[in-house]
User: Fold this.
Amino acid sequence: MKPHTENAVTSVHRMLRSNVRVGDIVIDATVGNGWDTQLLAECVGHSGLVYGFDIQQVALDVARVRLGEGTGNVRLLLAGHETMRDHIEPHHQGAIRAVTFNLGYLPGGEKELTTKASTTMAAIRQALELLMPGGLLTVVCYSHPEGRAECESVQGYLVELAQDRFSCLRLQFVNQSGNPPVVFAVYKASDNGINA
Assistant:
């Protein structure tokens, strides 16, 4: 049996499991095939809520099938993540525990239809505002041409964030072949100095 090895997505899932609790409100900014949505739905339980964004109906349909009966705590929205603030209920704004982005194109879909640096950056700015103190933002960036532009934009923005308000890290596997994805994680400072 082949041993399990860590990768960008499993690392993000580990971070999300460590930070998201039952009853939390969270956002999957890029639903894709629904794997992150499913994980978040399991983490928040029936008393929590997942907002899921994608611009492709096929992605939402695949995610709905993956979730099966577990869709009661998930709102799948056919909308670009750069519009997330418009879709998040006012009383949830500033109360979001985690926002996750898995950038690029829909696996198995059209590779030309991909997330873009301009809309991704608008979404990340909104996500940081929507996070609660102690909240977590994760971003997975890939190495296709638009992905490299996104990665540069994300890193360029994150390095300028005030360190008394945010802790930002970059994670990349250095022994994986090809151009492995880059993971960014941003922890929003909590009011009392510890993650709430």
Q: What stands out?
A: Helices lie at 8-19, 35-44, 57-67, 84-87, 117-130, 145-158.
